[in-house]
Amino acid sequence: MDEAARLASATLAVGLLVLGLKAAAYLLTGSAALYSDAAESVVNVAAAAALIVAVRLAAAPPDRNHPYGHHKAEYVSAVLEGALIVIAAGAILHEAWSAWRYPREIEFSAAGLGANLAASVINGIWCAVLVRRGKALRSPALAADGQHLLADVISSVGVLAGIAAALLTGQLWLDPLIACAVALNVLWSGAKLVRTSVGGLMDEAASPAAQDRIRGVIATNAEGAIEAHDLRTRHAGRLTFVDFHLVVAGDMRVTEAHDICDRIERALHEEDADMVVTIHVEPDDKAKHAGIVVL
């Protein structure tokens, strides 16, 4: 089992622990705001289960039906997580509306509030691990789950502060109001998650900075060629696909052109080992006198 799969499995275990703590906090206090926090943790558990499937599927080698690999499975997982977030937000808003129409006393429970605080600390530590390792492993699913947990932590801090204010002032309307704020925060984080994931499914290009680095590597390692043009990039999970046209002299031997391509590919893999490079060689009458000038 690789690191991404181990992190995904650990995320499910952490999610179940946090859900248990937050559910206990809600049952001990009867707070609509704590209900909202627990409802979001249900999403975290469901998303963690989807994450396990996604990272394992993404790690599968290419096959006849998927010659480019299965890396986009991680984006599907992240889109699913966004949909689950919307469902959770709806459940939270329903509970908040009920508590607004029929105000109910909040039970002060040191154990309940302590359980919620402990859950928030655990989530905070684990979200930092997922964001850091997700970026290092270039795993969209792990990074997305980490960002979602970060939004959960922010919500939890707001919930605890709001409940403290409601208990101190006796203003029961603060409880459902906080729950509504949590629902809106959940929706916002879900919308960002879906936008990023859909970008990957739609073959979004590498960042401008990454494209500049790729152009620089090609320009400094294509000695013997004339120019490179029509550079295209796209992401698929941890992989970056790069393809471009390389113009060489019309009378250049095939082996010489091949050597230039090999040199460029080696340099690009040194820049990023997870690049998949495709080079289309063209004779000099195809030069566009634009694009990447060979240094």
Automatic annotation (TrEMBL):
UniProt domain Cation efflux protein transmembrane: residue ranges: 12-202
Lineage: superkingdom: Bacteria
The keyword Glycoprotein belongs to this UniProt entry's keyword annotation: no
Keyword line: Membrane, Transmembrane, Transmembrane helix, Transport
Domain (Cation efflux protein cytoplasmic): residue spans on this chain: 210-283
GO BP: intracellular zinc ion homeostasis
GO cellular component, one term: plasma membrane
InterPro entries documented for this protein: Cation_efflux (IPR002524), Cation_efflux_CTD (IPR027470), Cation_efflux_CTD_sf (IPR036837), Cation_efflux_TM (IPR058533), Cation_efflux_TMD_sf (IPR027469), CDF_Transporter (IPR050291)
Residues passing through the membrane, by range: 41-61, 73-93, 108-129, 149-170
SUPFAM superfamilies on file: Cation efflux protein cytoplasmic domain-like, Cation efflux protein transmembrane domain-like
Membrane topology annotation: Multi-pass membrane protein
Signal peptide location: none
Subcellular location: Membrane
Keyword Magnesium: no
GO molecular-function term, one example from the UniProt record: cadmium ion transmembrane transporter activity
Matching NCBIfam families: CDF
Family, similarity comment: Belongs to the cation diffusion facilitator (CDF) transporter (TC 2.A.4) family.
Descriptive protein name: Cation diffusion facilitator family transporter
